[in-house]
Amino acid sequence: MTQIASSLLLLVVLADFVVLGTSRMSTCIRAIGVQGLLLAGLPVFLHAEWSVHMAGLALGTAAVKAVGLPWFLSWAIREANVRREVEPLVGFVPSLLIGAVMVAGSFAVAPTLPLPVQGGTLLVAVALSNVLTGLVVLTSRLKAVTQVVGYLMLENGIYVFGLTQTQRVPFLLELGVLLDVFVGVFIMGIVVFHINREFDSMSSSHLEELREP
Amino acid sequence: MTVAIQVLVLVMVLALAPLFPGVVQRTKSLLTGRRGPPVLQLYADLAKLWRKGAVYSATTSLVFRLAPAIFAGTTLVAACLLPLDGGGAPLRFAGDVVAFAGLLALGRFALVLAALDTGSSFEGMGASREATFGSLVEPGLFLCFAALAIATSSTSLTTMLGRPLAAVWTAAAPALVLVAASLFVLTLAENGRVPVDDPATHLELTMIHEVMVLDHSGPDLALILYAGAVKLTVFGAMLVSLMIPRGGLGLIVSVAVLVAGLTAMAVAVGVVEAVMARLRLIRIPQFLVAASVLATFAIMLLLSA
């Protein structure tokens, strides 16, 4: 693994911490966009040889993860008049600390996993920590938009894990995953939009109540 | 001979120390469209204060009079522990990192006690904040030191910031960048700089470090101001030694690199002061915890590599 690739992976994890620690929705979305851009650059620096497939995947990932999804999310916020603050169930400092514990756990567990991995255990560790911090964001934030961000972090983790297997698994699968996520976020965005229109709130805790407020 | 050179470099850096707060101030002024005080202003202030007499309130005790000397003394001894010439420190032993952090903590403790000794409620508030944020800075500092100790397998600052770092930079650069970023945040916090504290304001409600020293005057204040400048220089020297391993360089080049690096650090602090606002008090712990998380992450990277 090159120094550039490991620096990129590092920045990916730092973007997770930004999402955990910020109180602004726009910073959350920008961080997830930057993470997408970093992930798009990752396969280029990870493998020495160049190919059309790789360039296509990098460009496609950048277009969807770094431009399309952040734009769509900020559009949803603007359209739905969401208040621009993250509403955490767990405070920012505790969620940062939980995130640090999750990342520490992944870095501890990654070398012990019996995986046919290419490109070092750092990829596996970053993949695991992305999935786990995504889970933290999914479960500890009230607003639907922030939960979409958590879901995207989770998916980014799966993407990083996929990179360890790129020599075996065709790129088609990667593209399929990318499309899945795009459609998923699209639907969720529309749902978010409608929830906000009909109940005037995007907090998913209202979904648990059966009575009309 | 080498010890004599090390002491000489130390004396030179200590003499240059009051320059760097001036550079910070000048950078900040220029970026915000003002001219600002001369770069050498702190020298003039120190000379003026040194000639004046000190005024002591009737409610204060010996603690108040001793505190400036303790603060200045501990900071100067902490400076002796750093390998300023790129080779070795005048004072070095295994585990001197703990002594370094302990000396800084002792200096802060003396100032906090002196602030409480005045019996002023404003100073008490400042002391309480200083103690709170100090207790959050310390874990971060120790995590940074732990990362460096793991990287260089040593617990002496001379080795941790000295020759072995060059090899670490080629092997694990990302981890060292994280440590440097964390150390820079701690530098801002420990020296009472924006975004943690604002050295320019004299409103008791918004400041932390400045409010504690409101009652000191004359030579006492001069000592505190000088020790503050030395503290900034000490943290800057740590950052420079970490970022630019000077093991192979000659003495003259090495010292020149140190002074240039310290000036660059002061400019960086000035830029941060110009472009950022002071954080709200409740946001500061989050900022400092983030610095600790960065250092923790560096440790994890070093352990997994």
Task: Please state the structural category of chain B.
Answer: mainly alpha
State which percent range the strand residues of chain B make up.
under 5%
Rg estimate of chain B, integer Å: 19 Å
Order of helices and strands of chain B: HHHHHHHHHHHHH
Overall, the morphology of chain B is globular
Count of DSSP strands of chain A: 0
Q: Please indicate the percent range of residues of chain A in DSSP E strands (runs of 2 or more).
A: under 5%
Quick one: biggest sheet of chain B?
A: none
Low-confidence stretches of chain A: none
Task: Give the termini distance of chain B in whole angstroms.
Answer: 39 Å
Number of helices of chain B: 13
Q: Count up the domains of chain A.
A: 1
Number of domains of chain B: 1
Determine the number of helices of chain A (DSSP H or I, runs of at least 4 residues). Answer: 7
Low-confidence parts of chain B, pLDDT < 50 over ≥5 residues? Answer: none
Biggest sheet of chain A, open or closed, and with what strands and sense?
none
State mean pLDDT of chain B (0 to 100 scale). Answer: 91
Q: Which percent bin holds the helix content of chain A?
A: over 70%
